[in-house]
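Bit of a strange request maybe. I'm writing a small parser for structure token strings and I need a real example to test against, not something I typed by hand. Could someone generate the tokens for this chain?
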Amino acid sequence: LPKATNKYLATFRAFLEYARNNGVKISPTALSSYKKISVPDDETLTKTYLNEDELQALYNMPLTGLKEQVRDTFLLGCYLGQRVSDYSTLTAGDFTTTSKGTPVVKITQKKTNSTVTIPILYENIYKIAQKYNYVFPHVHDVVLNRYIKEILNELSDTVPALKKMERTVLTMKERASEQAGKITYTRDEKGYVIRPRYEIVTSHTARRSCITNLYLRGVYTTSQLMAISGHKSEKTFYEYLCCSSEEVADMIANITPNNRNIDL
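Reply from user aminoacidic:
Good idea to test on real output. This should exercise your parser:
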């Protein structure tokens, strides 16, 4: 996909620059040949998130066995805003308090090796932790990605918003299958592939859900939220926001005094 390709191109260009700076002869043509490729609009249309009401409905859903473990693992990500590789290895020792007594979870992120301190803002975190006696299930992200779609499909019978069709993109494997005539995907009037929301939820949706929900509360600064999520740049942080312009308008209106008293 274009975004992934651009990441690899940037890494390769950095490698060429490093080689040149260390005495390796690199053609100027080579240095200018590996430019970023354009990213089509639909490349950014796969993002979705679950709002706090949907998360509570998911929490209340009666499940057992592996599906219950998948649901609980996914919810931890939605409440803590971390990668599955970080929150799936939580222990009782990660739950602590600050010097002022604020309940927090401390996690050292594997990707960056930086420690983040996350205030516990959802009571469900404790309920899930106590259910497993702080020995959390280890659910591989491949398993999580498969079962969370099935779970949300079941939940969509009582939460119809999960059936809403959203624009998305195909994986390389899916594109190859479609080109070979093995499968046909539903498209909208502009030709974009569309799927129900429950089908495009993955382990990464949990991180997006946490960041987006906290952002939409309208009471935290970007730097505060980045301190929780562990993002180092605002550009990367904003890529995790999935809210629409209407949701942002509602957020602003809700924190503006007397906004509902305006005569229209």
